[in-house]
Amino acid sequence: METPLTLYDRLGDDNLKKLLDTFYDKVFESQVIGHMFKSTPKEVIKDKQFCFLSQFLGGPLRYNQKYGPPKMRMRHLPHPIDQAAKEEWLSIMKSSIDTLDIDSDFKETLYACFPNVAEFMVNR
User: Secondary structure of 10-57 in the HEC alphabet?
Assistant: First the structure.
């Protein structure tokens, strides 16, 4: 029996990198959440997110190997994340996913991974 493909397998590194390039270009321009990201170089943030999403989507444990256990809620506590920030983050993620050259059903499946995680990061 063949093992089903993970979301990571279906997306692939190239599309994940494209997604993050688009996403963080938009995030850094956002009037709502951009300020939360400006103290860290964009390439560092993109690398951390690439490593995290690789394993979050069922791929290699890059984040654990490079940065240790994700502990995402703890890592986000210093940032004031309210409902408006969450909605902005999700909107930017959705519009970034929509730029990928993947089928629309997979876009919906991929986006569906994020709302619960985003809600978990709300701390204000």
Answer: HHHHHHHHHHHHHHHHHHHHCCCCHHHCCCCCHHHHHHHHHHHHHHHC
Is 81 in contact with 94 (CB distance < 8 Å)? no
Q: Per-residue pLDDT for 15 more than 80?
A: yes
68, containing H or E segment:
none
Q: Which domains does the chain have, with CATH numbers?
A: 7-121 (1.10.490.10)
Tokens of 66: 């490079």
What is the length of the chain? 124
Residues 6+ apart with CB under 8 A from 34: 27, 28
Closest CA to 79 of 13, 27, 2, 7: 27
**How many other CB atoms are there within 10 angstroms of residue 88's CB atom?**
19
In the numeric block, the tokens 């993109």 are attached to 46
From 99, 75, 77, select the one nearest 21 (Cα to Cα).
Answer: 99
Q: For the whole model, what pTM was predicted?
A: 0.94
